What does this fold into?
Amino acid sequence: MNVLTHPWPWWAAGVLIGLIVPALLLLGNKKFGISSNLRHICAACLPAKISFFQYDWKKEIWNFFFVGGIFLGAIIATIWLKNPDPMQIHPDLARDLAANGITHLDGLVPSDLFSWSSLFTLRGFILMVVGGFLVGFGTRYAGGCTSGHAIMGLSNLQIPSLIATISFMVGGFLMTQLLLPFILSL
Amino acid sequence: MAMSNNTRKIQTPEQDLAMRRQDAMCVNESDISQPWWHNLKYAVVGIFFGVIFIKAEIVSWFRIQEMFRFESFHMYGVIGTAVVVGAASVFLIKRFKVKTFEGEAIQFEDKKFSVGQIYGGLLFGLGWAMTGACPGPLFAQIGTGALVIFVTLLSAIVGTWTYGYVREKLPH
It folds into this structure.
């Protein structure tokens, strides 16, 4: 049971995630990807005569089952496979976060930043609402997210996916290295 | 298809597939029509994925920060290994013309370059480092009990809708 409850090493997670690519292809000719869900939700709930949302979203309903599973899997792992030890965090990161009053380092989502009370602070609003907007807008503009481009696209040796993946990383570096220190200090 | 939305244009299946393919990596390429409960197999794969997300701490905001601060190899290792395994699988499927369990041929589409992959990619990268989540991990983060991330998810849906609204005005 220890093997299951302790954090899994990168190679185990990498192999298992990589195997999702052939699993979805063999199960029903489905390409691994998640961000399209957000588009299907728009197409299903509020297509508003926008041509980008005018398609038969019911053909992509498998993707809702897939993310529904992700949600359930997260609940299962959180309840029954909980890591008994405190999370290991790089000391430099812990120090920089502590300088901005972020000291609760338990949990995968830092409660000092992501909570209902911080939602109504400038810092929390930027991280959750602006951050979420950028995830939704950016992934669709890029035509895919980490799963669609970085894993499915690179697995299929697509140059556009390599360009997208490099852009994701550059955007992330810019935020973490340059902008986030300012946002966290708000 | 009986739709409550009567503004929907009547499209041929080919037009519909072309529209679904627009700005998308993962499109259902299957022509087989099955009862809804066949989709439960994708839920099983999803559960498996969700457990990995939590147990390998891929949805951890801290791990994402460590990745972008070059303080940990973890996320690079996860994504790199997944690509190697995925690429080997795709190669074998192409090489041996492996079919789906239902006997359908598996086909791959080549993607075309668009500057959207750069602009959109940069915007998503900013959001990834802020929220510590890609679209998949958003659902997993809510599953850990951080219910406030539902707001982030709603905002991501609004972002996608806004993209659809302004799409024709953006460079591609």
